[in-house]
Amino acid sequence: MSEPSNPPTLPLPLAETEAPDRLVRPLLVLARWAEEFTARRRARRTDAGPSIWEPIHLGTDENGHPVRVPLIYRNMLLAGEPGAGKSVGLNNIVAHAALATDCRLWLFDGKIVELGLWRSCADRFVANSLDDAVSALLDLQSEMDSRYAVLDDERRRKIAPADGVPPIVVVLDELAYFSATVGTKREQEAFSVLVRDLVARGRAAGIIVVAATQRPSSDIIPTSLRDLFGYRWAFRCTTDTSSDIVLGHGWASRGHTAASVAPETKGIGFLLAEGGVPRRIKAAHLSDEQVYALAERAAMRRLAAGIAHGQDLDDTTGGAA
Ligand SMILES: Nc1ncnc2c1ncn2[C@@H]1O[C@H](COP(=O)(O)OP(=O)(O)OP(=O)(O)O)[C@@H](O)[C@H]1O
Ligand SMILES: [Mg+2]
Predict the structure, then answer these.
(1) C-alpha of residue 86 to centroid of ligand 1, in Å
(2) Which of 53, 142, 190, 302 sits at 20 to 30 Å (Cα–Cα) from 180?
(3) What is the pLDDT of residues 110-151, one digit of tens each?
(4) Considering its fold, how many domains does the chain have in total?
């Protein structure tokens, strides 16, 4: 960001008692302006960026109000028909997490190209290999277990910002690719069991799972798994039943159904937060150019903070951090 090279130097404001009245007001205004200018400059210099402990901007609601949700200690499920806007929705979360240098980012993307743009910000990027996916999830599971061992030793229940233990944001674009499409039945089951364990136990250890699937069917999202996700975001679904599979049984009959979203209105979905009522929202849309720019900026910030891993861009098979 460009700044004036020579900020104006201002005379010190005169105390009211020392100055004639007509001078006091403009000088005070100028002094306040100078203070604001300095504060803005200081804020720009420190530019802490977002934090994973802060709410994440997802889009806008029907009244045009911003929708921001905290993801720490929570998980999120996104589902909806192909092209409904799940990956665009995911990008908002990944952008926030990538720019936040107080968390780690693990990305799983069977399509490679959706989350691939963020690869240089990821501690681990898993592409279309189920083997790599399972081995990454096993590593996450042992990280989770060792975090719980430390918490147990310290007789505490969950990680806190002061610990310096970074939350890990785990983003899976297309759950069904790993759990039902590639690999053997056994590998798929291993994958599903590990995801379920992370979703069920990861929250207090700072492991946040954000998973998307274009198959809102009960074989991909059994009720017992669905209910573990505190946030459920249903993008356009073809039927009330599939919308209910995402949001929970009964919402469609109460008028909250993602089947009501017109096919041509991309990015509209119903967001359900723990204990609430689904809200119809439109996901913010980051263009490819914006994603490139943000990913580059986030990678630089991570490098500067000493936490970047910036995997080799030619490595499309994923790999270790
Ligand atoms: N919030 C949005 N605002 C504007 N356009 C959007 C929005 N969401 C999606 N789109 C448009 O719809 C297209 C498809 O969106 P996206 O890739 O996110 O769908 P998807 O649900 O991930 O599909 P798939 O299941 O095939 O991966 C985007 O390329 C974009 O052009
Ligand atoms: Mg997608």
Answers:
(1) 6
(2) 142
(3) 888 889 999 999 999 999 899 999 999 999 999 999 999 999
(4) 2
Enumerate residues lining ligand 1, CB below 6 A. 80, 82-88, 214, 235, 266-267, 282-283, 285
311 within some domain: no
- Residue 87 annotated as lining a ligand binding site: yes
Note whether 287 and 253 are same-domain residues: yes
Q: What is the pLDDT of residues 162-213, one digit of tens each?
A: 988 999 999 999 999 999 999 999 999 999 999 999 999 999 999 999 999 9
Question: Distance between alpha carbon 255 and the CA centroid of its chain, in Å?
Answer: 28
Distance 248 CA to ligand 2 centre (A): 22
Answer yes or no: are the C-beta atoms of 187 and 130 closer than 8 Å.
yes
In a domain, residue 316? The reply is no
Nearest CA to ligand 1 atom 15: 85
Residue 21's domain comprises: 1-47
Q: Read off the pLDDT of each residue in 147-166 and give the average, rounded to a whole number.
A: 93
Residue 111 counted as an annotated binding residue: no
- Both 85 and 7 in a single domain? no
Tell me how far the alpha carbon of residue 22 lies from the centroid of ligand 2, in angstroms.
64
For position 313, what pLDDT does the model report? 39
Q: And the tokens for 133?
A: 């996916």
Each residue of 229-253: pLDDT tens digit? 999 999 999 999 999 999 997 999 9
Q: Give nearest CA residue, ligand 1 atom 31.
A: 266
Average pLDDT, the chain: 87
Residue 233, in any domain of the structure = yes
CA atoms of 36 and 42, how far apart (whole Å) = 10
